[in-house]
Design brief:
By secondary structure, the chain is of the alpha/beta class. It has two domains: about 5-80 and about 170-255, P-loop containing nucleotide triphosphate hydrolases (Rossmann fold, 3-Layer(aba) Sandwich); about 90-150, no CATH class. The protein is built from ten helices and ten strands. The strands form two sheets. The protein has a six-stranded mixed sheet with strand order 6-7-8-3-9-10, with helices on both faces. The chain has a four-stranded antiparallel sheet with strand order 2-1-4-5, covered by helices on one side. The protein is globular, with a radius of gyration of 19 Å. The protein binds adenosine-5'-triphosphate and magnesium ion. The site of adenosine-5'-triphosphate (ATP) has 12 residues, from β2 and α1. Adenosine-5'-triphosphate binds near residues 36, 40, 41, 42 and 85.
């Protein structure tokens, strides 16, 4: 059984058909890519699977269990973590607090414990902080734990989002254009981090990416979306040489 399975998913925004008859099957530990021109429907697919929108048609299962109709926080708790195309961080909150806060979804001590400060609460607080620091280490920004986000360079802010997405212990991580707006140095670092996260945590990754080099280097299989429909699916080599893909990109971006 696949970890994540999407069948015949279609979505309309009013009269606009944003996603049509979309199918996806991701196995544990696999790295998948999703490419396509601006407005093709890539982010909408992420938003449909993560519960921000409810698909007009189709089914989505995680570990065989239906997740259509669940709230985004419930889907996150079941094992889908994500980052956003446009950073969604609290500018004046510290790096460490971002990653700690994300873990409270799992916390058990409840209101009474929180109020009276029980030993269980203290132990859990410590565990949460330790885990947050571990994740910051993994994405290479542990030394920035006490900084507020607004003081950080862009590449580091992207890493905060990544650590926060990992804080819920996902089985699969969705990354929406994680290298957008990065300089070559930041880009190289981010690719290394994605590789490391994949290796160390053994999770599956579903990646939307505009830069062909990134998607080709990282992904085992890639889907190409045009006007909401998958027009090509295959290995990086199959995608690189597919005439339909080359046409969709006017032959330009494929080489970059
Ligand atoms: N909430 C919404 N309401 C109405 N239309 C929407 C909404 N979200 C997205 N769309 C439309 O759906 C289509 C797909 O948008 P989407 O953001 O999924 O594309 P994308 O492939 O992620 O593009 P990009 O590469 O620019 O990020 C676009 O035509 C967009 O304008
Ligand atoms: Mg998008």
């Amino acid at each position: 059984m696949a970890l994540l399975e999407v069948k015949d998913m279609t979505h309309y925004f009013g009269g606009l058909r944003a996603v049509y008859n979309y199918n996806l099957s991701i196995e544990k530990g696999e790295i998948r890519g999703l490419i396509g021109p601006n407005g093709a429907g890539k982010t909408t697919i992420f938003n449909l699977i993560t519960g921000i929108y409810r698909p007009s048609e189709g089914s989505i299962t995680l570990d065989g269990e239906n997740i259509v109709g669940l709230q985004p926080y419930q889907i996150a708790a079941k094992g889908i973590g994500r980052t956003f195309q446009n950073l969604q961080l609290w500018r004046h909150m510290s790096v460490l607090d971002h990653v700690k806060l994300a873990q409270y979804a799992k916390i058990r001590y409840g209101l009474v414990g929180a109020f009276f400060g029980t030993p269980l609460r203290h132990r859990q607080e410590q565990e949460i902080e330790d885990r947050a620091l571990e994740l910051l280490e993994l994405v290479g920004i542990r030394h920035l734990a006490d900084q507020v986000v607004t003081n950080l360079p862009y590449g580091a802010q992207r890493r905060v989002e990544m650590a926060r997405a990992l804080a819920t212990d996902p089985k699969i991580l969705f990354l929406d254009e994680p290298t957008v707006g990065m300089n070559p140095e930041e880009l190289k670092d981010m690719m290394e981090i994605i590789r490391q996260v994949h290796q160390e945590l053994g999770l599956a990754i579903f990646l939307i990416e505009h830069r062909m080099k990134v998607v080709m280097d990282l992904c085992e299989r890639i889907q190409t979306l045009v006007f909401g429909e998958v027009v090509a699916e295959g290995t990086p080599d199959e995608i690189r040489n597919n005439p339909v893909v080359i046409e969709a990109y006017l032959g330009k971006e494929i080489e970059t």
